[in-house]
Amino acid sequence: MAITKAVIPAAGLGTRFLPATKAMPKEMLPVVDKPAIQYVVEEAVGAGLDDVLLITGRNKNALENHFDRATEIESTLVAKGDIEKLRRVMYSSELADMHYVRQGDPKGLGHAVLRARKHVGRQPFAVLLGDDIIDSRDELLTTMIEVAERRGASVIALLEVDPEQINLYGAADVEATDDEGVVRVRGLVEKPAPEDAPSNLAIIGRYVLQPEVFDVLEHTAPGKGGEIQLTDALQELAADPDGPGVYGVVFRGRRYDTGDRLDYLKSIVQLAIDREDLGPRFRPWLREFAAGLDDEPVQGDVIAEPGIETPGHD
């Protein structure tokens, strides 16, 4: 069955970005000149998923507004003859067939995915987490969809990380397959201690799931943090000897983590320098600015310890 639906959980409070997210959803934080959520929806559409369901929560109306028509702005731009800005404004409202449902209780990622059950029905679907932006020049989701359609299995995205940082992610125990860059998942552990991790392959925020995951999530007990963990449901699917199993696509492209303040700043710089309209002017300034820095902290600098800012989906 062709995969056409994408689910994007977007109900988190964004506490790592307070006070900026006190009144604005974290998904609407700008990355250069587009909100982070638009990059994720564009990725889904680029992979052929034009039916997009956002799992939202309280104070998330800005998400719906962003993907809706803004007739006042459009009329103003038409009157000014600013056709390029008009095109960019209208683009987001024509991007996909957008749907919305509230998560209700904040019971974790697994619970958020389960809330998509009625919309998705009994067909495979993709889940994209809004904290992860995958560079549009690097293939990931299309490969995952191809593997899922060919094998009839659920597929997760994996990324090699520093073994000392694996405790910030879900970790995968894997075995090789005949497909380069594709592994079979034998087991999954949510945020293990480095010494207990089965590998340094971390789960990142892209999944292509078979509808059977809903049946598993229905009886998945709360795990770490008292939340229903999607990782726990995938572990059950991977361990089922009679099922199609779970596979992983090892991603080696460019990924931008906008869920962490430092990585969010890096994401803006990395994406801006590659822009044709900004890069030629931004790069020379950035080189000059960097040349004026030294390795010694100045008064007031705070040297963060590893692990203070952790990736996740709050």
UniProtKB/TrEMBL annotation:
Its EC number is 2.7.7.9. It is an enzyme of class 2 (transferase). GO terms for biological process: UDP-alpha-D-glucose metabolic process. It catalyses: alpha-D-glucose 1-phosphate + UTP + H(+) = UDP-alpha-D-glucose + diphosphate. Keywords: Nucleotidyltransferase, Transferase. Residues 5-267 form the Nucleotidyl transferase domain. The gene is galU. It comes from the Bacteria. It comes from Humibacter ginsenosidimutans. This is UTP--glucose-1-phosphate uridylyltransferase. One of its GO terms (molecular function) is UTP:glucose-1-phosphate uridylyltransferase activity. Pfam families: NTP_transferase. Belongs to the UDPGP type 2 family.
